[in-house]
Amino acid sequence: MSELETRERLTPGPASSAIQWDYAPSLEATDHFKLESRYDLFIGGKFVAPHSKRWFQTINPATEETLAEVAEGDAEDVDRAVREARRAYEKVWRKTSPSERAKYIFRIARLIQEKARALAVVETMNGGKPIKESRDVDIPLAAAHFFYYAGWADKLEYAFPNRNVAPVGVAGQIIPWNFPLLMAAWKLAPALAAGNTIVLKPAETTPVTSLMLAQIIQEADLPPGVVNIVTGAGATGAALVAHDDVDKIAFTGSTEVGKRIQRAAAGTKKKLTLELGGKAPNIVFEDAPLDQAIEGIINGIYFNQGHVCCAGSRLFVQESILEPVVRKLRDRIGTLRVGNPLDKNTDVGAINSRAQLEKIQELVSSGVEEGAEMYQTSCSLPTRGFWFAPTFFTGVGQSNRIAQEEIFGPVLSVLTFRTPEEALEKANNTPYGLSAGVWTEKGSRILKMAQKLRAGVIWANTYNKFDPTSPFGGFKESGFGREGGVQGLAPYVQLS
Ligand code: ADP
User: Fold this and answer.
1) Residues annotated as part of the active site
2) Shortest-distance atom of ligand 1 to CA 202
3) In this structure, how many other beta carbons lie within 10 angstroms of the beta carbon of residue 358?
């Protein structure tokens, strides 16, 4: 390519319309399961009408159509759920032998596998994520977490050698909308394995797969009250945090709400773990396998619409390779298929809610106002629902809002560095510390970077890979405590 052509192709504006084959639509079927028109609260092993007598509509963000009505639990409902969880803890679950507990958890895992297709479709319809993500990532990983922790239930003395291990009691768990079933699995599986009972509060925009999980829990014959699911919005979560008889709070969500929860739990008996926001650096050195790195970058920020706390939203490129990286990135985002999340070819689905879309739009406008250069795909977006075209910025300053604040959308900020030291300094220049990525041929450089990056999870020459055996959690304002792996049991046990 001539210098002139190169310059022309790197001019800011819409991303090049690289070759994109038209695929015939390949829609996942939705007629193999039936949703309830209304879901009540799951308390004491039964679905019960909320004390509030209020239900809210949960929608499909790709079409804005209502999927179902869901109960809005109030403080009385939370209290009823906590009392059931306490009763089940004292009378049943803490006395259930570890190997019996394991059998129930295995059963839940098997039932998730059996119903995987329906769960994947509903996850996509309620959350907006592409079916290939929910089918290949969310649902299999949720089952894998239950299988993994079922294996630990009768081996806790090996997880914590030479210690006496006891459960904590009643756990209140609050989860976000980006991985609804998977976040429920991350929280429920280790708590159950360690002998705790639970009140779970799903996110208000994505409650449906948690309620399908409640049906699975009934089918698995888990003793009533061991798992209770109370739907509602922030006030329902706040009531759970404020309840006197909750022994432990586990929260995944925004840093802002996390701080509020930490203040509410301060000075109480409650144990606390928080998994909060992120602004992950993805660092590409000049010796990295570029095409592989581009796929990792794309996977890290565009799949799942950037609705991932560990999304690689700050790309640090070594200055000598900036031109080919930007060119390849621009070509590659031009091939991303944005649209109906139920289409098996879709790469980028719908934004989860109108509020989230507005937040993305506001931050992207700030990037333009602060002088960064924007590249956006020129794909056509559906007229109904919430959508945002894959976007990246070059010429981003370290202090720009798009380099500092979590966007939680398909928006990447590209920055540069010259030396590994400069990369480290810039990458660590954030209040967050959830995850990071390093792309280089040199193993020694990977190890050196991994030691100095202030982040809980570091991927080398890959991105966004998860496994139940591997702990996940943050540094700094990304929170504390770990989920996954043997470390994920620690918040749910008392050791003596
Ligand atoms: P996000 O920005 O990812 O939506 P939030 O922190 O707003 O994250 O929400 C994550 C979860 O926390 C949701 O289930 C939400 O209902 C709940 N939540 C919101 N506000 C509060 C609060 N004050 N106390 C407890 N839970 C809350």
Assistant:
1) 275, 309
2) 14
3) 12
